[in-house]
Amino acid sequence: NAHVKKLVASYDPSNDFPPIQVNKRMEILDGQHRLKSMEILGIPVRYIIVEKGDLSTVQTMNSNVKNWTTKDYMDSYILQDREDYKIFKTFLDTYKLGYDMSMRLLGGGATDNNVYDRFKKGEFKVKNFDKAVQNASRIEQVKALYAGAGRKVFIQALLHCLSNKQFDFDTFLHKLSYQSSKLVDCVNRDQYVELIEKIYNYHSGTKINLRF
């Protein structure tokens, strides 16, 4: 962690670290990086017990110091024993699709631009786990034929196509298997959708329109 390394490098024995803050359950409210730095330096850990505090307090406190990462929010809610965030982490670690797309797959769909705000506020809910796993599995299958299948804009395009009842994934995967050179990196979702449509309709008697 770069922040911890910076604290360790700048440590001055004559000017000790401020004490970390914990609640009655000894959960850290403020000072995770200082604690890690003190452990590395092998110096005594000083702490203050805050009478009224829980893990949500640290989000408010630290937001005034530095921006929290998505991982920080995830970890804090997991420490609060939030089941949806535990499921999210398992999904994230298993399919490695990144925080944003994992949130969208599990909690709102490709076009849900408010899912991150809900995630930060502790309001994230897993809506359809089985469907998310199915779609993640489909993305992995495409990855075997196209290395860019993990790109955000491609996943958005694929989910858009899957929402069309005429689109059959197995048919697409079969046709992609002998046309993989046609699927190239695109700048946006619409370009990907157009390529997927061309691959899908190749040598088909009935053409389908995936762009609308």
Précis, in short:
This protein is mostly helical. Helices cover 54% and strands 4% of the residues. The chain has helices at 2-9, 32-41, 55-63, 70-79, 83-95, 98-107, 115-121, 129-143, 152-162, 169-177, 189-201; strands at 20-22, 28-30, 47-49.
Largest sheet: 3 strands, mixed
Q: How much helix is in the residues?
A: 40-55%
The total of helices stands at: 11
Low-confidence stretches: none
Judging from the principal axes of the Cα atoms, what is the shape?
elongated
- Helix-strand category: mainly alpha
Q: How many strands in all?
A: 3
Q: What is the distance, rounded to the nearest whole angstrom, between the alpha carbons of the first and last residues? A: 45 Å
Radius of gyration, rounded? 23 Å
N-to-C SSE string, H for helix and E for strand: HEEHEHHHHHHHHH
Strand arrangement, largest sheet? Answer: 2-1-3
- Mean pLDDT across every amino acid position: 86
* Percent of sequence in beta strands: under 5%
Structure description:
The chain is mostly helical. The protein is built from eleven helices and three strands. It has a three-stranded mixed β-sheet with strand order 2-1-3. A hairpin with a 5-residue loop joins β1 and β2. α5 packs across α6. The longest helix has 15 residues.
Helix and strand topology:
Layout: H1 2-9, E1 20-22, E2 28-30, H2 32-41, E3 47-49, H3 55-63, H4 70-79, H5 83-95, H6 98-107, H7 115-121, H8 129-143, H9 152-162, H10 169-177, H11 189-201
Parallel strand pairs: 1-3
Antiparallel strand pairs: 1-2
Helix pairs in contact: 1-2, 4-5, 5-6, 9-11
